[in-house]
Amino acid sequence: MRKTLLFLAAWLGFSAGALAQPKARVPEIIVPAAAPVAELSISDAIILGVVEGVTEFLPISSTGHLIIVTRVLRLESDRPLVGRDGRPLWFRPPSAKHPAGQPLTLKLAADTFNVVIQFGAIAAVALLYWTQLVSMLLGVLGRDPAGLKLFGNVVVAFLPVAVVGLLAKDWIDAHLFSVGPVIAAQVAGAGLMLFAERWRRRHIVLKPDDAGLSDLAPHQAAGIGLLQCLAIWPGTSRSMMVMVGGYFAGLNPRRAAEFSFLLGFVTLSGATVVKSYRSGAAMIEVFGWPHVLLGGVVAAVTAAVCVHFLVGWLTRHGLAVFAYYRLALAALLAGWFYL
Predict the structure, then answer these.
(1) d(CA 169, CA 127)
(2) What Rg do the C-alpha atoms of the chain give, in angstroms?
(3) pLDDT above 60 for 7
(4) For the chain, what are the domain ranges?
(5) Which one is predicted more confidently, 168 or 259?
(6) Hey, what long-range contacts does 66-72 have (CB within 8 A, 24 or more apart)?
(7) At what angle do helices 145-175 and 218-229 cross, to 10 degrees?
(8) Are the C-beta atoms of 91 and 104 separated by less than 8 Å?
(9) Cα angle 65, 261, 311; round to 5
(10) Tag placement on the chain: N or C end, fewer CB within 10 Å?
């Protein structure tokens, strides 16, 4: 753990050295031709990176928290951005398929930023759980039977969310990326967590503490994957749904968390690649590279710390405290934004 944090801290220091640039919240023009349309401030990039790293693997929803923080930082403007010549900048130019086109906005860039900096959380899992990832790779190569079983379970659990996510992405982006749905999801998720925690304490855990994740049956991995689909609703929490599914599959809290991390490595990698392909260039045009890299590095450091903390906490205390946090957050948000 110490070596991991030293490595990530060194990367952070290297990346942050040349980042002192002015902040422009809602820009109107591009000044030099090669300059980004707008820069996040260093503080904005750090705040979003910390929120991503802290919340990605805790069962409290990183997407929900990032939606809220993006609103607080005033990065959700839908006003079309224009270039120096006064002409609009396009995310999707007008075409036969999209006659009206889709203008480039600060909100679109910020939403993409919040997904792309997940590469920091991915890096943290890769460094902390590299032995399991190597085991899966060796399994695919026919040299580790347990690793092959674990790889199969991760793939089976990943496929449902991959399909549902691709089919429902546009509808979710249009209807659920706002504070109201996040509040509802926080409350619903808290109720599910409390139910799952009581269920776990009242039932005999079917798998012993030393059982590996490769001992999951394929149908159990598929059930966890189906539950993960519900996490497409912002505010629900992917890690929470996977851990709850792990409980119902007979995993103890530690093993459920570890499966959440490994499945998250695959799921977040897929989401980051897809989002980067679809709108990464637009995000870079608006924000530039340096602050995007800074946000990812900060996310990596904080995610590494939180993963280490979460395993120990769940082993001793379970999920209940996170459910109460979700209820308190939902009440605070309702009062702040609606009262």
Answers:
(1) 30
(2) 21
(3) no
(4) 2-17+40-90+103-338
(5) 259
(6) 66/114, 67/177, 67/178, 67/179, 67/182, 67/234, 67/235, 68/179, 68/182, 68/333, 70/107, 70/110, 70/111, 70/114, 71/179
(7) 20
(8) yes
(9) 90
(10) C
Confidence class for position 14, pLDDT limits 50, 70, 90: very low
Q: Which residue type occupies 289? A: W
Q: What is the pLDDT of residues 55-103, one digit of tens each?
A: 999 999 998 999 999 999 999 888 888 766 777 878 888 888 888 888 8
Instruction: Provide the pLDDT for residue 13.
Output: 43
